[in-house]
Design brief:
CATH topology of the domain at 39-131: Endonuclease III, domain 1
Largest sheet: 2 strands, antiparallel
CATH architecture of the domain at 39-131: Orthogonal Bundle
Shape: globular
CATH class of the domain at 39-131: Mainly Alpha
Distance between the termini: 15 Å
Strand order of the largest sheet: 1-2
Strand content: under 5%
């Protein structure tokens, strides 16, 4: 399956369809997103969005991401430091917020093992390693 994904990615390149919350707290689908290097907060937003979208509508995920962005919490360091109860309240719109808080915290703990998200995603075994993170899979 991974071989098929890699062939498709090579043939069609990145599509740039994942929405990102911009600095003005608006959700945007940037067609030029695929043609440039993503910054750390954009990559983290994608990871958070993947966690938050489990068993809920994207509209509710957008609300949570906008709230986190407004509070300037789209940061591995800041998400690591925030209390679980506070994070749960901030992502409440995504549903299953206590469970998702634990998953986010597990992901953050995992991501901290790397220098940055670029290094993490360049790890050849990242898929298998992420599947061992509690709540991801």
């Amino acid at each position: 399956m991974l071989n098929t994904y890699n062939k498709l990615l090579e043939a069609y390149k990145e599509q740039g369809w994942w929405p990102i919350v911009n600095p003005f707290n608006k959700v945007v689908y940037n067609k030029n997103f695929k043609n440039r290097k993503k910054i750390e907060t954009e990559k983290l937003q994608i990871c958070l969005g993947c966690i938050l979208t489990q068993n809920t509508s994207w509209k509710n995920v957008e609300k949570s991401l906008i709230t986190l962005n407004k509070k300037k919490l789209i940061s591995i360091k800041k998400l690591d430091k925030i209390l679980d109860k506070k994070l749960a309240l901030l992502i409440k719109s995504s549903g299953y917020y206590n469970q998702k808080t634990k998953t986010i915290k597990s992901f953050i703990k995992f991501a901290k093992k790397y220098k940055n998200l670029n290094e993490m995603f360049s790890d050849k075994n990242i898929r298998n390693k992420l599947l061992n993170v509690k709540g991801i899979g």
